[in-house]
Design brief:
Blueprint lengths: L3 E8 L2 E7 L4 E4 L1 E6 L9 H7 L3 E4 L1 H6 L3 H6 L3 H4 L5 E4 L3 H7 L4 E2 L4 E4 L6 E4 L1 H11 L3 E3 L12 H20 L7 E6 L5 H13 L4 E4 L8 H14 L6 E3 L5 H9 L4 E4 L1 H7 L2 E4 L2 E4 L19 H5 L2 H8 L3 H27 L3 H20 L3 H21 L6 H10 L9 E3 L8 H10 L4 H4 L8
Parallel strand pairs: 4-5, 4-14, 5-6, 6-10, 10-11, 11-12, 12-13, 13-14
Antiparallel strand pairs: 1-2, 2-3, 7-8, 8-9, 15-16, 16-17
Helix pairs in contact: 6-7, 7-8, 8-9, 9-18, 11-14, 13-14, 14-15
The structure holds zinc ion.
Zinc ion binds next to helix 12 and helix 14.
Length: 459
C-alpha cells in the first residue's frame, strides 16, 4: 500500500481527509480533471498547479496507443513525461475500449478489440492493463473491470459483477509496484443492491488501498444513482478513500460528498468549456449568447481566478466561437470552479458548517427564479416568456419584415439581469429536486430551509 488516508473532520457520513500519495499530499473531497493524452486540453501543467489541481487522470487506452507505455517508461514515467510533479491516476483502459470501439467484445480472458491503428484484433487482459499502468507509473492505478451500462438489466449485470471479482485477483497478482502505486478495485453490480453488496464484500476482503464505485453516470435516473452511492459508501471501509467514477456535475459532487464519497473525475468541466459554457454558482453561463456581447462583467464576479480577474464576458464571447483561446480560458475558469468547490467542501466539513454550505450552494441555484417570483409570479412569468421566449422567436420568424432598429432597441432596453436565457439556473422550476432532498435526508444533512418552501416533495 502506497498511500495514507487520515480523516481530519466529519459531518455525519461526509468526511474531509488528507490523502498522502507518493507524489502529493491531497485534501479530500477532491475533483480530478481528465487529461486524455497526458494533457488537459489547452492548459499547461503550471496553470493546473496554479488552479489547485491535486490529481490528474490519464487515459491508459490513449496513452498506450500514443506515445505508448514503453516510451513513457523509457522517458522516466508519466510524471516526468508531462512534467507534472503532483499525483496521477490512470484508468484500466477497458472503459475507453468498450465506449469508443464498436467492435470491442468482453470474454473471460479480457477485452478483445480491433486496433484503431491497423485494424488487427487485439486483447487487453487484466494482467496487461496492470503492466501498462505499471509502466506509466501513476500514483493510483485502476483494476480492469467488466463494464456494463447501468441501463442494461438481466443476467449480463450479474456476469459482469462476478467477472470483475475474478479479474481483481488477476490484477493483484500482476501488480509489480504495490509499494509505489495503489491499485483500486471497482464496485460493479448495476442498480441491483444485492449484486452491489456481493461486489463490495468481495473487494473489501482483498484489502485494497482504495475503492471505486463504477458503472454510474451512464444514463440511470438520479434517484437510482444516489441510492447506489449511498449503499456502497455505507459498506466500504471507513479508513480507505472512496472514488465515484465519471462524476460529475457540481451538484452530484456535493450530494456524493454528503453521502461519504471522497474522489471524483469527469470530462464535463473541460468539455462544456469547449462548447462555450462556464460554470457559475447559479448554474451555467452560456458565453456564446448574444447578451454576452456587451457585458463588461467577469464570468463570475465572485470568482478569484485569473480569467475572472482579467477578462470580461464580452471578450470571451468574442473569442469563444472563433479562437481556441476562448475554450482555454473557459476550461481554466471551470477547473478553478471545481477546485474551489472541492476546497469549500473540505473546509466546511472540518469547520462543522457543512449543512450551511450545502444550503447556500442550493439556494444560489434557485435564486434567479425566486427573486422574480417575489414581485408577482404570474406577471413575471408572462414577462419572462415575452422577453426570453416568444419575442425572439417572432423576431426570428419575421427577420426580413421587422426593422433591425426594433431589434436593436429591444437589445438595449432589456437590462442584462433580465436576459435570463444566457444564465441557465440549475433549478429552473424554482425548487430543489426531490432526489437531492431525499439523498440529504439519508446523509443526515438538514436542508429543509431550502427544500420546503419550493419543493413539492415536502408535501
Ligand atoms: Zn473564474
Amino acid at each position: 500500500m502506497a498511500l495514507r488516508f487520515e480523516i481530519l473532520g466529519r459531518f455525519n457520513r461526509a468526511r474531509a481527509a488528507q490523502l498522502t500519495l507518493p507524489h502529493f499530499v491531497c485534501q479530500t473531497p477532491l475533483f480530478m480533471p481528465v487529461g486524455t493524452q497526458g494533457t488537459i486540453k489547452g492548459l499547461a501543467t503550471n496553470q493546473l498547479e496554479e488552479i489547485g489541481c491535486q490529481i490528474i487522470l490519464g487515459n491508459t487506452y490513449h496513452l498506450a496507443l500514443r506515445p505508448t507505455s514503453e516510451l513513457i517508461d523509457e522517458l522516466g514515467g508519466l510524471h516526468q513525461f508531462m512534467n507534472w510533479p503532483r499525483a496521477l491516476l490512470t484508468d484500466s483502459g477497458g472503459f475507453q475500449m468498450v465506449s469508443l470501439l464498436h467492435l470491442a467484445d468482453i470474454t473471460e480472458k479480457g477485452v478483445t478489440f480491433q486496433s484503431p491503428v491497423d485494424g488487427k484484433p487485439m486483447l487487453l487482459t487484466p494482467e496487461e492493463s496492470i503492466q501498462i499502468q505499471n509502466r506509466i507509473g501513476a500514483d493510483i492505478i485502476m483494476a480492469l473491470d467488466d463494464v456494463v451500462k447501468t441501463t442494461i438489466t438481466g443476467p449480463r449485470i450479474e456476469e459482469a459483477m462476478y467477472r470483475t471479482l475474478r479479474w481483481i485477483d488477476r490484477c493483484i497478482a500482476a501488480h509489480q509496484r504495490p509499494h509505489e502505486q495503489n491499485l483500486f478495485g471497482i464496485v460493479q453490480g448495476g442498480l441491483d443492491p444485492v449484486l452491489r453488496d456481493i461486489c463490495v464484500r468481495g473487494l473489501v476482503d482483498r484489502n485494497l488501498p482504495g475503492y471505486a464505485i463504477g458503472g454510474l453516470a451512464g444514463g440511470e435516473s438520479k434517484d437510482s444513482f444516489w441510492r447506489v452511492v449511498a449503499q456502497c459508501t455505507a459498506a466500504l471501509p471507513e479508513d480507505k478513500p472512496r472514488y465515484v467514477m465519471g462524476v460529475g456535475y457540481p451538484l452530484d459532487i456535493v450530494v456524493c460528498s454528503a453521502l461519504g464519497a471522497d474522489m471524483y473525475d469527469c470530462v464535463y468541466p473541460t468539455r462544456t468549456a469547449r462548447f462555450g459554457t462556464a460554470l457559475v454558482p447559479e448554474g451555467v453561463l452560456k458565453l456564446k449568447h448574444n447578451a454576452m456581447a456587451d457585458d463588461a462583467r467577469p464570468i463570475d464576479p465572485t470568482c478569484a481566478c485569473m480569467v475572472c480577474r482579467t477578462y470580461s464576458r464580452a471578450y470571451i464571447h468574442c473569442l469563444v466561437t472563433k479562437d481556441a483561446m476562448g475554450s482555454q480560458l473557459l476550461s481554466y475558469h471551470n477547473l478553478y470552479y471545481m477546485m474551489k468547490l472541492s476546497r469549500d467542501l473540505h473546509t466546511s466539513i472540518i469547520e462543522g458548517r457543512f449543512p450551511e454550505f450545502v444550503c447556500n450552494f442550493l439556494r444560489i441555484m434557485v435564486y434567479f427564479f425566486t427573486s422574480f417570483t417575489q414581485i408577482g409570479p404570474f406577471s413575471v412569468y408572462i414577462l419572462y416568456l415575452l422577453i426570453g421566449g416568444i419575442f425572439p422567436i417572432l423576431c426570428h420568424c419575421f427577420e426580413d419584415t421587422i426593422s433591425p432598429s426594433i431589434l436593436l432597441l429591444w437589445e438595449k432596453k432589456v437590462p442584462v439581469e433580465l436576459k435570463l436565457s444566457s444564465v441557465v439556473a440549475l433549478f429552473p422550476k424554482g425548487d430543489v429536486p426531490e432526489w437531492v432532498c431525499n439523498a440529504m435526508e439519508v446523509a443526515g444533512i438538514d436542508i429543509s430551509s431550502c427544500c420546503s418552501p419550493f419543493s413539492s416533495s415536502q408535501d
